[in-house]
Amino acid sequence: MKFSAGSLFVLLAAVCWGFENNCTRKLSSKDPLQIVLLKGIFSGLGSIVIGLCIGERLTNLWSVFAVLGVGFVAYGLSIFFYVYAQRILGAARTSAYYAVAPFIGTLLSLVIFREMPKVTYFISLAAMAVGAWLCSKDEPIFKKREKTE
């Protein structure tokens, strides 16, 4: 089995996402709006730096406002509700629910573009649904055995 550079970046992104989720969980008792503002500022600045480094340039001023609007909804509101949910549900449950979102997006694209996904999509969807369901249960899946001596 051989890993491409892209697959290593995907793996690194997943590790960073898990690390970031746990850090956010520790901050979730704070004001979600402040957390979102800080995360948005630093994520936005990081995106600007990356864009400038790869040669992107601003061609239309109106696009700045369009991107800000999309960022507000897709990132700002999303993270706000995510942090608020972590406060109530915890990091594992919130992440499990949040991880189902790409599959919902794919189902929407199925309706819009009318292209049938491969069988592996449905296998992955089933695995994610089972994982989200298991993480959402109030009682532990595996109970610890008590030692009897």
Secondary structure layout plus pairing:
Layout: H1 5-27, H2 32-53, H3 61-89, H4 91-99, H5 101-113, H6 119-136
Shape annotation? globular
Overall mean pLDDT: 81
Number of strands: 0
Number of helices: 6
Radius of gyration over C-alpha positions, nearest whole angstrom: 19 Å
User: Biggest β-sheet, characterized?
Assistant: none
Structural class category: mainly alpha
The fraction of residues in strands falls at: under 5%
CA(first)-CA(last) distance: 47 Å
Q: Helix share of residues? A: over 70%
SSE order, one letter for each helix or strand? HHHHHH
Unreliable segments (pLDDT under 50, ≥5 consecutive)?
A: none
Task: Explain how this protein is built.
It is a single chain. The radius of gyration is 19 Å and the shape is globular. The chain is mostly helical. The protein contains six helices and no strands. The model has no long low-confidence stretch (mean pLDDT 81).
Concise description?
By secondary structure, the protein is an all-alpha fold. Helix content is 77%, strand content 0%.
Features:
single chain, mainly alpha, 149 residues, 6 helices
